[in-house]
Structures are given as C-alpha cells and as structure tokens.
Please model this.
Amino acid sequence: MTNALSRLLATNDVILADGATGTNLFNVGLQSGDAPELWNVDSPDKIRALYQGWVDAGSDLFLTNTFGGTAARLKLHDAQNRVAELNRIGAELGREIADKAGRTIVVAGSVGPTGEIMEPVGSLSHADAVEMFHEQAEALKEGGADVLWVETISAPEEFRAATEAFAMADMPWCGTMSFDTAGRTMMGVTSADLANLVETLPNKPLAFGANCGTGSSDIMRTVLGFVAQGTDLPLISKGNAGIPKYVDGSIHYDGTPDLMAQYAVMARDAGATIIGGCCGTMPAHMRKMREALDSTPRGPRPTLDQISDALGPFSSASDGTGDSAAAPERRSRRRRRRA
Model:
C-alpha cells in the first residue's frame, strides 16, 4: 500500500516525529482529569497550534489529539457517543495543518489503550476491543489521517485487537508499546516479545517500536533489544524528555533540548528510523533534535556504556530479555552527563 509514510520511509534516512501532546496542552490550560479530545471541538485553535508547533520545529510526522478516543476512555467523560465526531475532527485539524506546510507531513491517527484489562485477566473481550478500535479507526480515516498509530500499549492481546481493527478499516499502521518496568511493559512484554509478536501478525505495521516508559537511556536499550531480534521493519523510538519530577505542585521533566538532541542522534545510530519524543517533549526539544539529526553524521551503534554516559543511568540493571541481565549494576549508578 502506497501512502505518505511509506513514501517517506522509502526516501528518508530518518523521520522526525513529534513530542508530547498532554504536556503541551497542560501548558495552555488543560486541567488534570480533562479529556484532551474534547478540545478538538471546544478549543480547535489550541489543537491547530499544537500541530503547527511540531511542523515549525521540523517534524515530518505528528500524532493527532485522539489518544483517549475509544468509547471506553471517552465514557469517563460521558462522551462515549462522540467517538466518531471527536476523532474525525482531531484528524481534520491535523490534515488542515499538514496540507498547508509546503512539504510532506504525515498525519498519524493516535490510538491509545482502552484503559481496560482484556480477558482472561480482565473483562474486556477481544471482540469488544476490536469493535472499539475499529470505530475510532474509521473516524480517523474519515478525517484524513495518513496512518493509524497505536501507542503506549502494554498487553499483546490489546495490540492484536487494534491491528485487527486497522485491517478492517483498510488503513496502514504503526505501533508502539511502553516499556517502563525493568525493560518490560506493565503486562510483562519485553522488546524481544514485541518484535516476535509483530512477525506473527497478518497485517504487519509500517514500523513498530517503543514510546514513553522512563528515560531516554531506557528506551535506547529497548531499541537495541529490537535490533537484536534482526527485524527488517523500521523501528520507532519516542522517548520521554528525561525523568519526571514533582516540583512546586506539578510534574516537570528534566531532559533539556540538548540532551534530547543527543538522544535523537544515538537513537538513529542504534537503528531507529522514526524518532520523536513523548512526555515532557516540547517544540524546543524537537528543534534541537532536528538540528542534530541534520548536522551529525551517522556513527556506529552505541554501546550500553556510551548510552548511560551520554544520557544518564538506566532505571534497572536489565532490559528484561535475559541477554542484558549481566549488564553491570554500576551503569544504574553513574552520574548523568548533560550536553
């Protein structure tokens, strides 16, 4: 299937994605507990500004403001009957910004987890999950998204349900999981597990990888875990801007733009093709990442020691796959160095 993202993947050495949605919207008035998706209708100019900020910073791809756009998530805000409207408009606003950019910008329809636990551990059935994801996928498609982008997933069952729904919508897709517990997702999936899972899917993604998690060091180690599996698919790395800290009543991320620039280059050299930021990542970070990717020649694949020296300590001694279990504990105690 030929589409905007597959064309970029065929011609670009690296693709710069976007940064954080929530962090940036909180900075312009979103309150804790609010549904960002409602702003697609209630504050469309703020969503246009969010998207425009990524384009101006040099991103080639940005995600729509639809992360919590399933009926299960919107039900928390009594908006479960507005799935089609909120997702369609979220994508339409993105299409509007992308189409006037003067260069190819990929609009990726963000699809987050349902927030429910799937059978057999929980009560959400495969059929119900597929139905919810399909409803969201069709709305994003109608709004003009180039590609669907399922992210921050923890359970393989939910990942499979989303991909089945995307096939029903006849849309290309990308997918990421969040590895935040000693190199594993909340449901115990490792980088090796995800790489193997993707190979079993009847409709493979255009790219897959990791987002969110803990810090940039940990997501780099996860990327190396994907590479070690020998996958031929492009890899995604969307790491947080450092480590979250509670300061003066709110969450702040300690990753500077210069640190994220280092991360972007190392992620590329490690094997990632689509590189962006997640929580805490602002346009200022993205501008530095763009500049660094454009001006720094490709180098050798970084080692774990080089990653921890440049980006800071790992949060655990192992990435959970077993191969790195022997990584010295000293790596988690090194002082962080900043550019």
Remarks:
- Residues 191 and 222 are 6 Å apart (CA to CA).
- Strands lie at 15-16, 61-63, 106-111, 147-153, 173-177, 207-212, 235-239, 244-247, 250-253, 272-277.
- Confidence is low (pLDDT under 50) at residues 324-339.
